[in-house]
Amino acid sequence: MGLLDCEVLVVDTQTTSSSPKTGRLIELGWARVESDEEVAAQSHLVALPSDAPLPRAVSRITGIHRDDLEGVDDEATVWARLQAAMGPMGRPVRTVIHYARFELVFLRQLQERHGPEGALPFEVVCTHEIAKRLLPDLPRRNLRAIAGYYGFDPELLRRSDGHVLATAHVWRRMADALAEQGIDDWDELRRWLAESKAPKRSKKRGYPMLRTERLALPDRPGVYRFRREGGGLLYVGKAISLRKRVNSYFTKRRGHAERLLEMLSQAKEIDVTETYTALEAAMLETDEIKTHRPAYNKALRHEVRDVWFATADLSAAESSPDDVHRVGPLPSPWSLRSFNALCDWLDDPEGSHWRERGRAMGSGTGWEAPSVDELAAGLALFRRRYDGVPNNRPQRELLSLSKRLALLSRDGRLDPGPRGVEGPRPWDPERVARHVERVTLQMGRQLRRARWLCLLSESSVGWHEPGQTARRRLVLERGRVVERCFVPPERELPIPPGAERERRERQASFHDIHTYDRLRVLSTELKRICQHSDDVEVRLSQRPPLRGAQLRQLLDRC
Q1: Which long-range contacts (CB under 8 A, 24 or more apart) does 68-73 make?
Q2: What does residue 464 show for φ and ψ, rounded to 5 degrees?
Q3: DSSP for residue 391
Q4: Could you write out the three-class secondary structure of 161-218?
Q5: Angle 160-180/127-134 helices, nearest 10 degrees?
Q6: CA 468, chain centre distance (Å)
Q7: Among 86-95, 120-129, 387-396, 418-427, the range of highest mean pLDDT
Q8: Are 328 and 339 in contact (CB under 8 A)?
Q9: How many angstroms from the chain centroid is the CA of residue 460?
């Protein structure tokens, strides 16, 4: 019977640790797979004993939280369900597991605890062991990498049912590949795995993407998209030179992050969109990441992000501007938390809750915050250094001081303190004073950025790209580009169409995080260009455009 003709059981577990000695089962999933029929995976959460911990890292990876495990079946019941699902498949059951060495130790533990007595009723083939032989030079062979290599297109595999579906897909594709090598029988496959030795990994990685395809990319600015087999989107990036940037992923020998190697193990296809300038590539990148949410993009993704608008004293924030909430746009309500907690502590050093003390010091727990005495000594040093900050209404005083701190920081006269210090650092007056400086400086910069982005949402932008005789021009209205073209160097920037819009009307343009990030990226790119060229202009109204040192100074402060 051919490999694809025999019925197999696919099994996956989720646990709190890599070893039964320190971990417990929290989910068990399986499916019966035969020929080319659709796979119906099922999974069951498993009750966790009250004294068994559920690490935060496990919850973050799997999405399973302690509340999810309340009122669910115990492991004996779930194990019995798996036994029943085997049905008349015979004993031992032909079973496919990815990275079976890990899964089997937990399955043996279930067998020992809940029976029936005897050998484990699975005859296991491990797809990871097959991958080591079929794909010896692939950079990574975890389930996500292998499934993506074979074109399986989930956004992120986290739970047992998803792992089962991915493993079933991998099994079917591997069965085809094994048949091409003359291995078309279950027993023959098990002998091959037992008798053959997986080759050592070559120093030269074997990427799925054809070298000729990436070398044929243009030497121009643009956006590139890595895709799985079948077109599933993995990653979106920007480049000054598409050819150089994309090929840099494959020529670099060391220093690749694990997540990146996992992505490159799947990337078989690439498509690009050329842009006239690197600035426009950066703006297109942020829009595409939010629209398509590629699995391997971390920055600029749109999860559940809104823009926020705060009250004048920054004590509260809402997701839309009104007569009370008129400070913004801000990227998150949490951006105010540390500053407000610090101001509350300044108001009442003795009465602040320990959790607020932790937030004021930039940590999630008060145990990492300084004591009341350490805080008082640090604030006294801060007040002496900056001519006093009264306890009464400290928000206003600190925000006023943030302008002075920004000038000191710009001129390099603000000491950031020690960096890269290993191990826990004790709190002392100097560290407290520097922390207050940093929180104040960051809050002031965030408010200046909010005002600048509101202005930039209705603007005309002109700059000169190296190697081009004409100047590039963008016109923005309500935060979107409504005109882009090349113009002669001598032509003046037009007055933006929304130049007369009031601040409140401009704030309404920030109805989602797309506009905020698009303009933030534009501002960052303008700052980059200003470092190398004086031929950059931004026009915000009927007044003459901002340019040169004036524009650089404004961008530096935001």
Answers
A1: 69/26, 69/45, 71/47, 72/44, 72/45, 72/46, 72/47, 73/44, 73/45, 73/46, 73/47
A2: -115, 125
A3: S
A4: HHHHHHHHHHHHHHHHHHHHCCCCCHHHHHHHHHHCCCCCCCCCCCCCCCHHHHHCCC
A5: 40
A6: 36
A7: 120-129
A8: no
A9: 32
Rounded CA separation 98/171 (Å): 9
DSSP class per residue in 31-90: EEE-TTPPP--EEEE----TTS---HHHHHHH---GGGGTTPPPHHHHHHHHHHHHTTS-
Do the Cβ atoms of 122 and 107 come closer than 8 Å?
Answer: yes
Cβ-based neighbours of 402, under 8 Å, separated by 6 or more: 440, 441, 443, 444, 445, 447
Which ranges of 363-512 would DSSP assign to H, the alpha helix? 372-385, 394-410, 429-456, 503-507
Are 311 and 343 spatial neighbours (Cβ–Cβ below 8 Å)? no
Tell me how far apart the alpha carbons of residues 34 and 28 are, in angstroms, rounded to a whole number.
20
Structure tokens belonging to residue 215: 């070398």
- Residue 283 near residue 522 (C-beta atoms within 8 A): yes
Q: For residue 422, is pLDDT > 80?
A: no
Share of residues in the chain with pLDDT > 90 (%):
54
- Check: CB of residue 520 under 8 Å from CB of residue 300: no
- Both structure tokens of 449: 């950025």
* Domains of the chain and CATH, by start: 8-195 (3.30.420.10), 211-292 (3.40.1440.10), 309-418+425-445 (no CATH), 457-557 (no CATH)
- Residues 351, 373: Cα–Cα separation, whole Å: 13
pTM for the full model?
A: 0.86
- Would you put residue 230 in left (φ > 0), alpha (ψ -120 to 50) or beta? left
3 state SS of 287: helix
* Cβ pair 28, 47 in contact under 8 A: no
- With CA atoms as reference, report the closest residue to 166 among 78, 228, 106: 228
44: left (phi over 0), alpha (psi -120 to 50) or beta: beta
Cα dihedral value 30, 233, 226, 265, nearest 10:
0
* pLDDT digit string, tens, across residues 471-514: 999 999 999 999 999 998 888 999 999 999 999 999 999 988 89
222: three-class secondary structure by DSSP: strand
Least Cα distance to 65 among 11, 99, 106, 26 occurs for 26
Phi then psi for 150, rounded to 5 degrees?
-90, 15
Compute CA distances 519 → 195, 238, 329, 499, 524, whole Å: 60, 16, 11, 16, 9
pLDDT (0 to 100) of residue 366:
47
Spatial separation of the C-alpha atoms in residues 328 and 333, rounded to whole Å: 11
Beta carbons of 382 and 389 less than 8 angstroms apart: yes
**pLDDT tens across 36-93, in order?**
788 889 999 999 988 889 999 999 889 899 999 999 999 999 999 998 888 765 578 8
